[in-house]
Amino acid sequence: MLTKIFVRYCPLWRRYYSNSTKPKTAIILLNMGGPQHIHQVGDYLHRIMTDRDVIQFPFAQNIIGEWIAKRRTPDVQKKYQEIGGGSPILKWTTLQGDLLCKQLDKESPETAPHKAYVGFRYVPPFTEDALEEMLKDGVERAIIFSQYPQYSCATSGSSFNVIYRYFKEHGFPKGLKFSIIDRWSVHPLLAQCFADLIRKELHKLPEDKRKEAVILFSAHSLPLKAVNRGDSYPSEVGCTVQLVMWDLKYCNPYQLVWQSKVGPLPWLGPFTDETVKMYGKQGKKTLVVVPIAFVNEHIETLHELDIELVEDAKKAGIEIIRRVPAPNDHPLFISALVDLVKHHLKSNLAVTPKFLNRCPHCENAICKQSKEFFAEVCNL
Ligand code: FES
């Protein structure tokens, strides 16, 4: 309180205070983002559909992408309306960043103050906005921290390509210490967090149903074309699932399934909705669904799993279906973030060799340039 009054009324104190709280270490949290308001849905879809890191049309990417985005906008707007009018992903990411930095200031005073910057790929605040703000703040060190625990060229990779393009256009600032946390699918605290959330959900089931419940780990699917290019996402999601089940001592039957397929081309399966239908046919009655590749709630959990999948389950004769919450602000999840950054700050590994290695069948020229750029600025 006293500090606030001094800051407000005393210019000398204000100058001292702003210098002493100037962030030293920036942590840029990358994610895809989601529209906070219905009116952002059209732009959001347009950006996804014209992003060649996500989807590659054989020709006229912008025209086809724009056409698909326009066609899908009313349907998607309706879905956002049904979950309360917007995505909560900004709220969760901001909170996660605040909790992360607060703890880091305590545990790593030599790199404090830390400041989190939210960098979304398809809605504001954009990745470019986060970089700009960070540069204005004049930080000494920047850590790019992907909020996709499992790396895919279509998600994390797309955001990293944006960062490359930004610095290519604006130049890379001299003296900025730069490093990357690109994947963390096997972090033990992440697995413990999911295991804790699953245990709690299993305990909400009637005792006689608990043992028979099938744990369905659901992750966003990927076109098979991307999988065959060598995208590491499916194997990294599988690693998280195995660690979680190890923590749970393989207490229940489980299955990894894939959701959110769009378009007519083949995608990685089995699909979440079809699995529920088939399990219904096999006579299964109880399911616990885990969004294993999402670290916070958004449309894929709140609509696709909580509304659409529940409908499918009812029709398929499933008697109980429960959905495990995303990690959000779970203390174990925040501890995972803190542990990752703390160890990263102390290590000499500015970027993993895996990140710098392209998919064996990558034909994207931007990936090549981007990897070369990151190798250089991470001082390898
Ligand atoms: Fe994976 Fe280019 S598509 S590195």
Task: Explain this structure.
- Helices cover 51% and strands 13% of the residues.
- The chain has 380 residues and is α/β, with parallel strands linked by helices.
- Helix 1 crosses helix 2.
- The longest helix has 22 residues, at 61-82.
- The model has no long low-confidence stretch (mean pLDDT 93).
- The site of FE2/S2 (inorganic) cluster (FES) has 9 residues, from loops.
Strand order across the largest sheet:
2-1-3-4
How far apart lie the N and C ends?
46 Å
Query: What is the CATH level 1 assignment of the largest domain?
Result: Alpha Beta
For the secondary structure, the number of strands is 8
Query: Strand portion, in percent?
Result: 5-15%
* Global morphology: globular
Oligomer status: single chain
Number of domains: 2
Task: Give me the secondary-structure category.
Answer: alpha/beta
Report the sheet with the most strands, covering strand number, pairing sense and barrel closure.
4 strands, parallel
What compounds sit in this structure? FE2/S2 (inorganic) cluster
Helix content: 40-55%
What is the arithmetic mean of pLDDT? Answer: 93
Q: Kindly identify the CATH topology of the largest domain.
A: Rossmann fold
- Unreliable residue stretches: none
